[in-house]
Amino acid sequence: MSNEDQIDLIFKALANPVRRAICDELKLRPLTTKQICMGFPDLDRTTVMQHLKVLESAGLLIPVRKGRERFNYLDAMPIERIHQRWIGPHAAAATSALARLKRDLEEGAKDKLSAS
């Protein structure tokens, strides 16, 4: 699967509010599938499982079986790759601009003090 296809899967997975809510819960701690289902009483277990499958296909969820239970862990690395690709360069530019502004203001204050 190409990198672009993987990114499409991530955006598709995060486009759904239920899946985003599941990710929000999993960022706090791993949960069993039963615990996730209990958090969405309006959805039946099959629907929740379908959402978990989409998250897993996108690489956002890592299921681990322990006995009869399935623990679901959030894998934030795909989101980090998106951040590095689109947000990181802008954040770096903003940080650099703020550093220049700070330097210019400090130099301006020094010039005023030495002129006095």
TrEMBL record:
<feature type="domain" description="HTH arsR-type">
    <location>
        <begin position="9"/>
        <end position="83"/>
    </location>
</feature>
<dbReference type="Pfam" id="PF12840">
    <property type="entry name" value="HTH_20"/>
</dbReference>
<protein>
    <submittedName>
        <fullName>Helix-turn-helix domain-containing protein</fullName>
    </submittedName>
</protein>
<dbReference type="GO" id="GO:0003700">
    <property type="term" value="F:DNA-binding transcription factor activity"/>
</dbReference>
<dbReference type="InterPro" id="IPR001845">
    <property type="entry name" value="HTH_ArsR_DNA-bd_dom"/>
</dbReference>
<dbReference type="InterPro" id="IPR036388">
    <property type="entry name" value="WH-like_DNA-bd_sf"/>
</dbReference>
<dbReference type="InterPro" id="IPR011991">
    <property type="entry name" value="ArsR-like_HTH"/>
</dbReference>
<dbReference type="InterPro" id="IPR036390">
    <property type="entry name" value="WH_DNA-bd_sf"/>
</dbReference>
